[in-house]
Each structure stands twice: as C-alpha cells, then as structure tokens.
C-alpha cells in the first residue's frame, strides 16, 4: 500500500533569490539547483546522455562522489510545487527491486528535476537493440532474467500497490540494467507530472509508436492492458534482439509484431530467435516467450493476460495456451487505413470523456488520454 509520507510546510527560506519551500519528503534528498549544476558541469552537452518526452537526462557526479542520472523535466511539467511534491512522494514511496529508485529532486523557481541512481549497464535500446558496439553478451539466461524482472516490476505497479499505476511508456529505453543485469523499469509515475494530452509526446520524440496499444493510441483509452501490450512488444524485442520497427529491412519484415505473427502461423517461430543468443539456449522456451508476446499484444484488450499471469507463464508455472490466439493489434495497419481514409480531415478528436465498456477491456479501471488522429499520423 502506498502511503503519503510527505510534509509540506510554509515558505521556509528565501536564499539567493531562490524561493525555497520547506520540502521534507521522506527517503529523498532535496538538491539545490547549484548542486546539480556542479554535478553536471553546468548541464554541459558532454554530460547529457539522452532526451525523451519528459525532458533531458544528464549524467552527474555529486559532491559525495555518487554517480547519478539527473532528469530535467521539460517546461510542460510546470506544476505548482505542491502538486509536484505530491506526485513525487508517491513515486518515491514505491520501492521494488525492478523499479528504478528515485533518490532526490530539485524544485527551485521553474526547475523541476529528478535525481536517480545511475545504472551503468544502460538501457536496452542502447545495448541489446542498439546499432553501435555493445560489450554485453545477452545470453538466454540474461534475457530470461530481464523478461521476468520487468514482468515482476510491472505486476507490482499494476496489482500490488494501491492505487495501481499504469506506466504508459513501457519501452526498451525505459528498461535499465544494473551491474548484475537486474532490470529496472524507469519513468513510472512520470506521466502524472504532465497534462494528459502531452504524455504521448515522448513516443513522438523517441519514435516509439510501435509500443502503443491500438485502443490507447487511437481512442486514448488507457487501462493496464495498454501497458501489457507494450510489454508484449518488449518481450518480442528481447527474444529476437530486433527493434519493433526497422526500416532497413525488406518491407514484409519491417514490423516485428507482424513478422512474429506471420512466422507463428507458418510454424517457424524459432527462425526469429536472436542468433547472437549463444549455444546455451532452450529454443522451446524462447518460442514460448514469443507466444506470450503474442498473447500480450492481442487486438482485443480483454484477450491479453494480466501481468501476474504473464509472470506465471514466463516462470513456467502456467501453460501458455495459444489455441485461441487471433490477430495481434497492429497499429501500423490501422494507421494506414485510417490515414488514407482521413487524409483530408485527419483531426478527428479523441474519445476523451467517453465511457469505456470495461468488459471489453477486462479491466475495471480506465483513465483517458487526449489524442487526436493527427498526432498519431505524425509519429
Ligand atoms: N537512471 C539512469 N541510468 C542510466 N541511464 C539512464 C538513466 N535514466 C535514463 N537514462 C538514459 O537516458 C536516456 C533518456 O532517458 P529519457 O529521458 O527517460 O528518455 P526515453 O526513455 O524516452 O529514451 C535513456 O535512453 C537512458 O539510456
Ligand atoms: Mg525514460
């Protein structure tokens, strides 16, 4: 159960023109903007390690020598101090071995900054799926550990904490690896720091529309099943070592989900297992994982399993029943039909505010995001 352990006081001090409110968030350090400037050589381009929809990330070294990832939230997150603190208190209270821990924060003037521990084995998009050199050998043992760990972290967010959290942005760049390859999910809870219509922006910037469940992308209908869809895509990426979309491949192979579905129907799934995986691989198990990926990406949200069932399937505690498998939800197909249909009036707005028939989703909690089709077609 998540508890609020934050205490906000009145304005406590005004130092160097900086308005500092009394910010006492348990388990978290409050940094000054100056501390973080020093840690990152004044946010130098050399310290910058990435940029996503929520802002820029810098690698920094704090005064005590610890290495951190410093996330400077973009202007769209201009929340009041109190709202910001309320949200990050929720995030900081959530601690589980497969979730990145938030160490501290900075809130000064317009700055809203989060400080995380730096994970030196990087994110899966840079290592496993990256085009550059990677010194990590992703054996099957390591990949299995990553799949199960991510499933565990997501099951925790979905089913163990109250109120549960829908991540909304499960993708390879949000899976970080620690020294012993324990995966850690990052950026959970961040969507709450932004207005809902902007939370899709990260997918535009990172070009990651391939992770978006069709019902979420098109109608803005957000349930846990949207995360489960994204997890399914990630699972396929981990087993095959291929990004969900690769424009350099022949047209029929560009979309990973489409390709997996095709080879599944032909009974040739094993052809997709990453050849870099090494000798020590259990092909039956890898194919089972690909089938779980297909179950998670079923077009109908209700047909996707819950994360706790996914975990049982990954662990071998539950059979993977694929007899009822039907077509996966392929956003690119829907997009091309819809784009062609709507190319002159592609501004049909979202279903924001509409009731969703929860029986269709197999999930009683639904929140909404604003989304227009124009936004989608530009991703
Ligand atoms: N705690 C961290 N440790 C190491 N690298 C990180 C950490 N957080 C983020 N990164 C890196 O910074 C990059 C940008 O992160 P982010 O702003 O969350 O964008 P996105 O997840 O959309 O790629 C990520 O791809 C990741 O490689
Ligand atoms: Mg991220």
Please give a structural write-up.
This protein has 379 residues and is an alpha+beta fold. The chain folds into two domains: 116 residues, Phosphorylase Kinase, domain 1, CATH 3.30.200.20; 239 residues, Transferase(Phosphotransferase) domain 1 (Transferase(Phosphotransferase), domain 1, Orthogonal Bundle). The protein has twelve helices and twelve strands. The strands form four sheets. It has a six-stranded mixed β-sheet with strand order 3-7-8-6-5-4, with helices on both faces. It has a two-stranded antiparallel sheet with strand order 1-2. Strands 9-10 form a two-stranded antiparallel sheet. Helix 3 runs antiparallel to helix 6, helix 3 packs antiparallel against helix 9 and helix 6 runs antiparallel to helix 8. Bound molecules: adenosine-5'-diphosphate and magnesium ion. The site of magnesium ion (MG) has 5 residues, from loops. The site of magnesium ion has 5 residues, from loops. InterPro entries: CR_Ser/Thr_kinase (IPR052059), Kinase-like_dom_sf (IPR011009), Prot_kinase_dom (IPR000719), Protein_kinase_ATP_BS (IPR017441), Ser/Thr_kinase_AS (IPR008271). It is found in: Membrane. Pfam families: Pkinase (PF00069).
């Amino acid at each position: 159960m998540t508890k609020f352990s934050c205490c906000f006081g009145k304005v406590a001090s005004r130092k160097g023109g900086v308005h500092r409110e009394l910010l006492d968030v348990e388990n978290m350090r409050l940094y000054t903007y100056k501390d973080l400037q020093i840690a990152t050589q004044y946010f130098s381009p050399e310290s910058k390690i990435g940029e996503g929809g929520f802002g820029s990330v810098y690698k920094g070294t704090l005064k005590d020598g610890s290495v951190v990832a410093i996330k400077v939230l973009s202007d769209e997150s201009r929340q009041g101090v109190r709202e910001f603190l309320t949200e990050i208190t929720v995030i900081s209270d959530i601690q589980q071995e497969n979730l990145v821990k938030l160490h501290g924060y900075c809130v000064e003037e317009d700055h809203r900054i989060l400080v995380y521990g730096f994970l030196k084995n990087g994110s899966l998009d840079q290592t496993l799926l990256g085009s550059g050199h990677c010194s990590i050998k992703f054996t099957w043992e390591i990949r299995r550990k990553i799949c199960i760990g991510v499933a565990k972290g997501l099951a925790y967010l979905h089913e163990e904490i109250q109120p549960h959290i829908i991540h909304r942005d499960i993708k390879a760049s949000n899976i970080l690896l620690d020294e012993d390859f324990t995966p850690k999910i990052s950026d959970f809870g961040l969507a709450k720091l932004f207005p809902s219509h902007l939370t899709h922006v990260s997918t535009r910037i990172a070009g990651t529309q391939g992770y978006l469940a069709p019902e979420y992308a098109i109608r803005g209908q957000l349930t846990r099943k949207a995360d489960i869809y994204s997890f399914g895509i990630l699972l396929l990426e981990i087993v095959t070592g291929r990004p969900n979309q690769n424009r350099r491949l022949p047209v029929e192979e560009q979309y990973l989900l489409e390709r997996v579905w095709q080879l599944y129907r032909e009974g040739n799934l094993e052809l997709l297992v990453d050849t870099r995986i090494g000798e020590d691989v259990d092909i039956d198990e890898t194919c089972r994982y690909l089938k779980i990926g297909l179950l998670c990406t079923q077009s109908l949200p209700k047909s996707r399993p819950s994360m706790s069932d996914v975990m049982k399937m990954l662990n071998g505690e539950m059979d993977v029943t694929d007899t009822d498998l039907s077509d996966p939800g392929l956003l690119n197909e829907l997009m091309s039909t819809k784009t062609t249909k709507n190319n002159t009036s592609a501004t049909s707005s979202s279903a924001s505010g509409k009731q969703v028939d929860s029986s269709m989703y197999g999930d009683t909690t639904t929140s909404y995001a604003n989304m227009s089709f124009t936004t989608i077609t530009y991703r």
